[in-house]
Amino acid sequence: MDVRSLTAAQSYASLRPALQPDPKQASSIEQDFARVTQDFTNRLAAAEQTAQQAMAGDADPHALVEALAQSELAVETVVALRDKVVEAYQEILRMPV
Q: Each residue of 1-23: pLDDT tens digit?
């Protein structure tokens, strides 16, 4: 067995735990992303609940329209963000190596 490959494998094995993120210490961008994601799901859940209440006759039409407008804005924002991420990824792929 080649000594260099054995050393490389041992070095990789020793560094592998350092490459895995520690869930207890989330960076600020991870915390922000988690907060935004939770806010997005909460908005959609609230809009869905308002729509169900409106179908049952328990919510006024104004509240339904407002909830649907908020959820539409949230979905459009997420789609725009996704489009920007995909565009950036495609630009990275086009870069010459």
A: 555 666 777 776 676 665 566 66
CB of 46 closer than 8 Å to CB of 67: yes
Q: Of 66, 65, 70, 80, whose CA–CA distance to 40 is shortest?
A: 70
List the structure tokens of 59: 């919510």
**35, 14 contact by CB (below 8 A):** no
Specify whether the backbone of 2 is left (phi greater than 0), alpha (psi in -120 to 50) or beta: beta
Domain range list for the chain: 23-94
Q: What is the pLDDT of residues 33-53, one digit of tens each?
A: 889 899 999 999 999 999 998
Q: Return the ∠ at Cα 21 (arms to 93 and 94), rounded to 5°.
A: 5
Q: What is the pLDDT of residue 28?
A: 83
* Burial classification of residue 69, based on how many CB atoms lie within 10 Å of its CB (0-12 exposed, 13-18 middle, 19 or more buried): exposed
